[in-house]
Amino acid sequence: MWITNILGDSMDFTSNLLINVFAITILLVLFLTLALGRNRSTLSTKLFSLIILTVIIQLIADIFGRMDGITNFSVPIANQIGNFVLFTMNPAPSVLWILFIISHIYGDIKISKRVVIPLTIYVLLHLVAMTINIFY
Question: What does pTM read for this prediction?
Fold first, then answer.
C-alpha cells in the first residue's frame, strides 16, 4: 500500500500529522463544494456542513492530543487540551448525523425538534462526564 511506503510501519507524531492534514484537506474541499453549491440553504446541507466542521476540529484536536512525548512546557498543556476537546466532541458527529438523516428523510423540522431534546441531554451528560474526568 502506498501510504505504508511513505509513512513506514510506525504511527508516530509525524505520520499522524501527515494523515490528519491530508484528511483535513479533503474535508475542506468537500466543505467548500457544499458552501458554494445550489442547495446550501437546506437544513440537511447545513447539518452535513456542521458534521464536516466538527470532524475538522476533532482532527486538529487529535494533532494536539498526540503531543505526549515532547517535554517542552507548553506541549503537555496542548496535549491535555487536545485530548479534552477530542473526547468532549466525540458524540457530536453522530448526533449531527442522526439529525441529518431525519431532516434528509422527512424534511420536517418538527420531527427534528422531538429528537433534539434527548440528544441534547445526552451531549450535556457526556460533557459533564468529561469535565469530571479531568479531575479524577
Answer: 0.83
